[in-house]
Specification:
The structure is a single chain. The protein has 8 helices and 4 strands; from the N terminus they run ααβααβαβααβα. The protein is α+β, with helices and mostly antiparallel strands and 186 residues long. It has a single domain, classed as 3-Layer(aba) Sandwich (NADH Oxidase), CATH 3.40.109. A 4-stranded antiparallel β-sheet has the order 1-2-4-3. The two termini are 27 Å apart. The structure holds flavin mononucleotide.
Amino acid sequence: MNDVLKAIEERSSIRAYTAEKLTNEEITALVKAGLQAPTARNMREVHITVVDGENPILAEIDNEKNMLLAANADEETKAKILANPNNFYYSAPTVLILSVDKDFFWNKLDAGIAVENISLAAQSMGLGSLIIGIINGAMSGAKKEYFAKALKFPENYEFAIAIALGHRNTEKEPHEIDLDESVCYI
Ligand SMILES: Cc1cc2nc3c(=O)[nH]c(=O)nc-3n(C[C@H](O)[C@H](O)[C@H](O)COP(=O)(O)O)c2cc1C
């Protein structure tokens, strides 16, 4: 099997990381993989904020996410959220936050393609990754402008998707696929 197909087939979402930091070379390779993704009309509007896992902004986003989730949850779910020891990025040493031009029609699709490029690049480099959408509410709520500024989004940009990256501290099998259910030939 060629290397690309192997990375696609073996990738899975990783929710536990070691404390080992990524090197600058690894981070550069990952952001390049994101920016080398195709974009509609070759707009290249996807922007990446590289956040060190120890940056306190991540805890602020996590608190806001928990607060919003708890506010909209029943008592049982609320207790579960508050009892969950994990933050949204599972203490990965690096988190990339992708933002896009608010007014470009294909913005979120472009970010999705870019984030998958990053995820597959990580897989091919022996690293783990987790694509993160759960902070969308926190990133687009009352603190939207505050987070956009703290994360240095370009003017008129908004959150699209995030990805946690690091060395795996767990293994997870790739999900099952069902060719009969998901594909038809006409
Ligand atoms: C757009 C998107 C958003 C996601 N957001 C989260 C998230 O916030 N937290 C999380 O733990 N997993 C998140 N995931 C990971 C999915 O849960 C995961 O891809 C799915 O369960 C299949 O597992 P696999 O990636 O290991 O094949 C997200 C995946 C995608 C594509």
